[in-house]
User: Which sequence fits this backbone?
């Protein structure tokens, strides 16, 4: 099975409301991440912090295809996925503050956002560790006759792990309803794609498991949305697992501890010209779907949301230290 | 089976596990068994023989050689509402899925602030003594018992092999059941109505007044054999089967030590940093003033398991070694 390359999506088909919706979603991510960086410098947030700038089109584009019954498994670079999935910016920030009102009670921090209500299963900081879990969630759905999708995000670094190959093999062997989304941002920490992989065409690796796979421009939210919609529809239709490679780029350092010795400033500059928010905004303006006033309105709205989230996190409380061993095991029996 | 029927029958440890699996699969449709060769092959120790025919390939699910993949899938399936029993052929291969067990199963509930529990049971064959050399003879249950968030069961008796599985399946959190492969052929008499047993208490398997021998798994039988020999010399050893290594039921062995005033820990695991060290520490903390002699330990020698029979026997704790140690302890500190 050869990987598909999707052609140019029909931007003309996007109406004004949808354009506003996508722009708002990507803007929320960008502004949240900027705030995180700021709060990190202010020492409000500690630990590892991995930001998503540049990759917004992936989380936003893919999530459009999911319904509330679906499940999401993500990595340590997952603020965006949680936010777009429906976890509030306030509870995400509170989590990073380490407050007990955070979405993981302050137990996880930036890398371990969890939320039962939106079926957000983390927040996994072991590269590749989430893939088998996604297969299992999908297996549970299949065995219980439920039609829903488990969507699993990971970087191209995870593709070199054994668990990637084990999970793809299992998913195809068992025909479970899972969508694998590889966010290929060209670097695993400081190791570039060509130093990580003997075969750098990631979508081809999926194809060797006879897993229907598509590679898409991950800087183009409409392209991602179109490809994800197709893939998710196939999963829902019972056609088995699907694979989507989104070719993207991370604008910021890997984490807050990264001196970025492995790439040139010029390379980053070139990629920034293709930034998903700027290019989408320009395109929609050209098509007459968005006006300057819309962008301004969204920025204002998002600024207020983030401000509110910070205020919320600030006002949240610390878990009592006596609770340090709570939830090592469940309290009481199972329902 | 008729309620209250007391008819006795003799079955093996292997049959007891199989019966427990069969019962669980019958009683709860969310339960399924998966692992390498559990179906068409019948289980590498023939434990699941016949279950594929009875329950079909969806519920007796053969997996490829992907320990991390299928243990992780078990975690996911548990999160998704199933009650998976994942068989990892032997503990030796669990090192390939140690990441899923330790970094996912054990921490999901905690890291999610109490939102996502993982009701998963993992069964693993364990132990040495079958001339399988270093890579196939490990006893790592004590090592896993170091990890908060999972529970570690070590059924030594046919009754426990029959009864621990169902109780483990009722637990909301991940439970690892270590079945010593040297015990699969062991026979015992069970009531026809034998069923679930508790998984939180150690048991005194033999009462005695002179020393407490604290052990678990296959070493239990070496301790019991030693106790018989010692009894002929007038030394009465109490033998405690820990049954569960995490959480550790320290009350049972502390009370025993308070009666006997001596303690010997017998463990097929290594001495350095092992579960025997943990038990000794608990005795220091909880029964120090009861002791008439220093706590002693008999563990495997600190070497990878050798292949040759005489060497393997020398490395593992044996009944004769227990007898010698106890004699010395009782006589030197009489
Ligand atoms: C199993 C494992 N090995 C190493 C690490 C350290 N590490 C964290 S992120 C990372 C790079 C991962 O790159 P990729 O999967 O492409 O995701 P990205 O960071 O680009 O989003 C590494 C090596 C880890 N967390 N887990």
Assistant:
């Amino acid at each position: 099975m050869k990987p598909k390359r999707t052609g140019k999506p029909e931007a003309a088909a996007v109406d004004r409301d949808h354009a506003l919706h996508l722009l708002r979603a990507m803007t929320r991510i960008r502004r949240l991440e900027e705030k995180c960086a700021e709060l990190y410098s202010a020492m409000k947030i500690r630990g590892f912090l991995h930001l998503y700038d540049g990759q917004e089109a992936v989380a936003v584009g893919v999530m459009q295809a999911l319904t509330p019954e679906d499940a999401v498994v993500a990595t340590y670079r997952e603020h965006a996925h949680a936010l777009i999935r429906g976890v509030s910016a306030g509870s995400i920030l509170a989590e990073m503050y380490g407050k007990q009102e955070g979405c993981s009670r302050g137990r996880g921090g930036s890398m371990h956002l969890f939320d039962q209500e939106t079926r957000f299963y983390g927040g996994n900081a072991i590269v590749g560790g989430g893939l088998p879990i996604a297969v299992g969630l999908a297996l549970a759905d299949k065995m219980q006759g439920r039609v829903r999708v488990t969507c699993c995000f990971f970087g191209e670094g995870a593709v070199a792990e054994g668990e990637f190959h084990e999970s793809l093999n299992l998913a195809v062997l068992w025909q479970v309803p899972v969508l694998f989304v590889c966010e290929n941002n060209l670097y695993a920490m400081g190791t570039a794609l060509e130093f990580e992989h003997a075969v750098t065409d990631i979508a081809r690796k999926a194809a060797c498991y006879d897993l229907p796979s598509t590679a898409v421009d991950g800087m183009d939210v409409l392209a991602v949305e179109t490809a994800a919609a197709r893939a998710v529809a196939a999963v829902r239709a019972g056609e088995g697992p699907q694979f989507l490679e989104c070719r993207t780029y991370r604008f910021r350092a890997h984490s807050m501890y990264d001196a970025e010795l492995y790439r040139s400033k010029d390379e980053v500059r070139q990629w920034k010209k293709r930034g998903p928010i700027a290019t989408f905004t320009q395109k929609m303006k050209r098509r007459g779907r968005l006006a300057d006033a819309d962008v301004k309105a969204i920025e204002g709205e998002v600024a207020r949301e983030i401000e509110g989230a910070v205020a919320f996190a600030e006002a949240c409380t610390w878990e009592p230290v006596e609770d340090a061993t709570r939830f090592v095991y469940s309290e009481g029996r199972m329902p | 089976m008729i309620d209250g029927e007391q008819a006795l029958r003799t079955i093996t440890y292997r049959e007891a596990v199989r019966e427990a699996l069969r019962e669980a699969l019958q009683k709860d449709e969310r339960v399924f068994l998966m692992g390498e060769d559990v179906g068409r092959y019948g289980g590498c120790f023939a434990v699941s023989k016949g279950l594929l025919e009875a329950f079909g390939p969806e519920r007796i699910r053969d997996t490829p050689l992907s320990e991390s993949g299928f243990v992780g899938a078990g975690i996911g399936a548990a999160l998704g509402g199933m009650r998976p029993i994942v068989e990892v052929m032997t503990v030796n291969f669990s090192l390939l899925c140690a990441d899923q067990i330790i970094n996912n199963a054990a921490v999901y509930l905690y890291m999610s602030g109490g939102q996502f529990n993982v009701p998963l049971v993992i069964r693993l064959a364990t132990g040495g003594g079958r001339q399988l050399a270093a890579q196939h003879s490990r006893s790592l249950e004590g090592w896993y018992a170091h990890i908060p968030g999972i529970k570690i069961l070590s059924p030594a008796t046919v009754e426990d092999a029959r009864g621990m599985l169902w109780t483990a399946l009722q637990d909301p959190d991940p439970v690892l059941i270590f079945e010593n492969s040297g015990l699969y052929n062991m026979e015992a008499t069970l009531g026809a109505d034998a069923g679930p047993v508790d998984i939180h208490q150690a048991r005194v398997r033999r009462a005695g007044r002179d020393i407490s021998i604290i052990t678990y798994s296959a070493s239990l039988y070496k301790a019991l054999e030693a106790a018989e020999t010692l009894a002929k010399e007038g030394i009465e050893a109490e033998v405690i089967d820990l049954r569960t290594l995490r959480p550790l039921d320290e009350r049972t062995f502390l009370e025993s030590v308070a009666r006997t005033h001596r303690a010997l820990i017998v463990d097929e695991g290594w001495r350095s940093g092992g579960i025997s060290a943990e038990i000794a520490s608990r005795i220091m903390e909880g029964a120090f003033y009861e002791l008439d002699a220093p706590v002693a330990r008999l563990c495997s020698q600190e070497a990878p398991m050798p292949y040759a029979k005489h060497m393997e026997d020398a490395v593992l704790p044996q009944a004769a070694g227990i007898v010698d140690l106890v004699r010395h302890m009782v006589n030197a500190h009489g």
In short: Chain A has one domain: 4-71+124-293. Chain A has a mean pLDDT of 95. Chain A touches chain B through 50 residues (CB under 8 Å). The two ends of chain A are 44 Å apart (CA to CA).
